[in-house]
Amino acid sequence: MSTTTDLSIHVFADANRRAMAAVAYSRVGPVDQESITRLLVAKTKLSQIRSLRPPSTAVPRMTIPRLKLRAALIAARLLHTICEELSVDIHSC
Predict the structure, then answer these.
(1) Residue 89: per-residue pLDDT
(2) In this model, does residue 10 exceed pLDDT 60?
(3) What is the enclosing helix (H) or strand (E) of 72?
(4) What is the pLDDT of residues 43-68, one digit of tens each?
(5) Is 40 exposed, middle or buried, given 0-12, 13-18 or 19+ CB atoms closer than 10 A?
(6) Is residue 35 part of a domain?
(7) pLDDT for position 2
(8) Model pTM?
(9) Given this model, what pLDDT does residue 63 score?
(10) Through-space distance between the first and last CA atoms of the chain, rounded to whole angstroms
(11) Domain count, the chain
């Protein structure tokens, strides 16, 4: 029976027209048994509703794919911060 403990960090992100969000979970436990999963951190950000520029030069709303990319960026930054704070190599997450 192995007593090796495995740590993995899972980050998920999503977005819609109103908001972007990212969440990070940790999974800790022996490789060959049940593991414990815990919420580490969640981050939300409102999407840009309207431009602050005058109407004649206003930029249209961001597209859904663009918002999803921004959510992925939030998730990547979360993972980077978590790995720094826990002193874990980002490639081992």
Answers:
(1) 82
(2) yes
(3) helix 64-85
(4) 999 987 665 666 666 666 788 899 99
(5) middle
(6) yes
(7) 57
(8) 0.78
(9) 87
(10) 24
(11) 1
Instruction: Please check whether residue 53 lies inside any domain of the structure.
Output: no
How far apart are alpha carbons 23 and 67 in whole angstroms?
16
Two tokens, residue 82: 């978590």
Let me know: does 21 contact 15? Beta carbons within 8 Å.
yes
93 located within any domain: no
CA 23 remoteness from chain centre? 5
Q: Cβ(24)–Cβ(11) under 8 Å?
A: yes
Q: Which amino acid is at 36?
A: I
Backbone region of residue 29 per phi and psi (left: phi > 0; alpha: psi in -120 to 50; beta: other values): left
Using the predicted structure, report yes or no on whether residue 15 has a pLDDT greater than 60. Answer: yes
Owning domain of residue 41: 5-48+58-88
